[in-house]
Design goal:
By secondary structure, the protein is of the alpha+beta class. The chain contains 15 helices and 46 strands. The chain folds into five domains: about 280 residues, Alpha-Beta Barrel (7-stranded beta/alpha barrel), CATH 3.20.110.10; about 100 residues, Glycoside hydrolase family 38, central domain (Substrate Binding Domain Of Dnak, Chain:A, Domain 2), CATH 1.20.1270.50; about 90 residues, Sandwich (Immunoglobulin-like), CATH 2.60.40; about 260 residues, Distorted Sandwich (Beta-galactosidase, Chain A, domain 5); about 80 residues, Sandwich (Immunoglobulin-like). The strands form eleven sheets. A nine-stranded antiparallel sheet has the order 23-24-25-26-35-32-31-28-29. A seven-stranded antiparallel sheet has the order 20-21-22-27-34-33-30, with no helix packed on it.
Length: about 900
Amino acid sequence: MNEKNNKWIIHLVAHTHWDKEWYFTKQDSDILLNDNVNNLLNMLDNNEISNFTFDGQYSIIEDYIKYNPDNKTKIEKYVKDKKIIIGPWYTQPDFFNSGSESIIRNLLYGIKGCQSINSDYLKVAYVPDSFGHNNQMPQIYNSFGLNRFLYWRGISKKIIDNNGIINDWVGIDGSKILSYNLLFGYWPFGSYYPYLELNKSNINLKAKEFYENTKLMIDEIKNKSLGITNSILIPIGGDQAPILNYFNEFVNEINNLSNDQWIVSDYDTFFDNINISTNNLPMINEELRFPYLSRVHRTIGSQRQDIKYILKKLETELYLNLEPLMSYYFLIAKKYDKSFIDEIIKNILLSQAHDSLGGCNSDRTNSDIKNRIERSYDLVQSIETKILKIISKNVNLENESLLIFNTELFDTCHDYFVKIFTKHKYFNLEEKNGEIVNYSVIKSSYCESGMSVKPSINGEKVESLDGFYEHDILINDLKIDSLFFSVLNIVKKNEIYIDKYISNFKITLDKNMIVIKNNYNDDCYKIIFECTYDFGDSYDYSPKSFKTEEINTFLNSSIEHIIHNRLNISQITIDYLVPESEKKSKKILQKFFITIYEYENNKLTFNINTTNNSSELRWRFIILSPKELKSTFNDQCYSIIDRNHNEYLKTWEIDKWKEAPINIEPFEYICGVRNVFCIYSKFLNEYEMFDNNKFAITLYRSVSFLGKNDLLFRPGRSSGTSEYNLKTFDSRLINYNFDVSLTIDFNNNVNNLLESRHNIKNTLYYQNQNYNTLHKKFDRFLLKIPSIEIKSLGISLSNTDFIVKTFKKAEKTNDLIIRGFNPLDKDINLSLKNNNTNNNILFNVLDLNEDIKHINKNEILIKKNEIITISIKGDILDD
């Protein structure tokens, strides 16, 4: 604080925090939104309020305009004049369970949305309620031109005590952003504002009550700002808060009571006038995920696993398969279905708002979210099938032949899981040059119940169709050029040849324990399935006691080994008895079906299938390591982060944290222990290392309430609706069929994100067949096929260690965008090459808002965890 001026300047910001859905549906909130915005417009028309901040989201205004198109011009005027303040977000996201690229698209679509109505947006990275912040966000904010960060949740006691609430937050790559912590949150001051009671006759009385009720909180904010600034920020609002009547008059009355200067402000104005008195602010050098001041719900990553599973599946298919395929199609055909992509991404972003993605909602709301995601996945699959079918027809794909597409920007040699339909029981797969491709049959069945219906003069004419085989196969070591495809023909043969694969592992079963012995180094790993009571709710896991007690009783087990061509399979069944629920001691059967595939060097892929029959429990997949485990690493939001156990778990109760800072961590696709193993999965979200040699992946949780009071790991009021414990029957996941895969990679000193790519992506392929046209639903439609010259583009990255997260058409031009990052502990160089001409391809370097930073580069140096966005011309084939 400036010693020459003892008067504090207190910035009051009228706002609302707008959850689109929660214990209510989006339909409910849309009705309320309509009333609130109409009231705001009337007040602005009559100069009754200076400005109002709509939660840093653009999509709120988009929703309003959808129902009130006649008011669009008025909305545009007030947003442009900064009377209605929106953006930069599309929705307020979850930062640990959203995919990397979705977080960037959230800001991209939020800013683009504001610009679409010729309006400005909030220049502050405003995140009032999300459950913590990953430490790649400073780099992302900077690249969007955002240099101020305003938040509440996630700060630690150590930071508050040592640094206060104003800091420079330093990201994992070294990027820096000015950060201001809302010490008491976005809502407490609003809870003392008399929204519906205030009128001209009682305004002085209500202002005095507000001043007295908030004095201690304001004094504490002053205390945590001393020595840095004489300006403090007080948001006045709350969840779905109405517009503030008589706000200017209310502030004038407070000024009559206070020695400080209280002003009606907004977040941009506050940061513009914060008057920091030092050039060396304290720094935060870690992620913000500590539940000291407020809860961050460290185990929300495993709540409603069914929803998180389909959302991650959708993101993976969209960003890693569909958009690269559409980019290839755009280069050869100049067609790009952008409107469908916009719809899919907006549905993703709507579903990734912090409560929506958390799954901490009513059953009705979660049903809406799940349906929204499934509809979007249908769009993705249909667009994929349409493009692949057009390509296949233009290359005259033969009957029964299949086309497999490589969406990577480099040549690959991989194994591919595919389902094919053919009249042959035994067959060869042959490339166009006649070279035979190895494959393994995983499962086969014969289908002979089909019928065809044709019209005739006597009515319908029904004929039986010839039978056919359905084969699930694994194609081995198929080489495919960068951003191109391989065609495989099915050729009949009389018998199947078994080429025995030499195994790296010996897999056995010891009762309920899967024992994996490495044949090369004799390391012995053990796998168990752990079930414990979950006395928590839809926000947090909570055990019965601090000592974990397993409640699954082993019943019996079996194992069968199957050897296919280049593939070893171990099929395991383990039966347990578990309590029916927390309150019912009756034991019921829980069967686990585990299939272990060994087909890659020093890797094992586990498919885990079970149908949940109980509630109030948590299941985990636990690896018991022969080696001591000291620290972990995982990917998150365009970065790799190394983790040690946090230092606060021993003292959290003494220091009165809002929630136990347990060492359960989120991940996007990979997690593990360096030089021991790494796990790849697109289905799961959280892990824990404990007892020096155990590594657990949470499979799923089953709970019965949205919120509960007095949890062991979260004392006090329930989260959500604390006055009433809302039952959520669907969150028990009764009869939910849990079917996921994960891969354990025992290789050391590899780029795990690069290695994981093929394990997390579905095979992108099309088979020209008429046996089962329902396999890919869109394939059944009659489609007019445009004539297109299909060719290899030859575009290739010089460095495969650069992890591409998106390859898509630009938002503002017909250029194509490539975005990725460097996950290694060293700098890497990157260039683009045209393999057809052997020349380098010039590219522009962009910021995340897709504005040009550098033009016509042929190479770029990329630092550890640095995000790079480059663009190439959409007409590159015409050069």
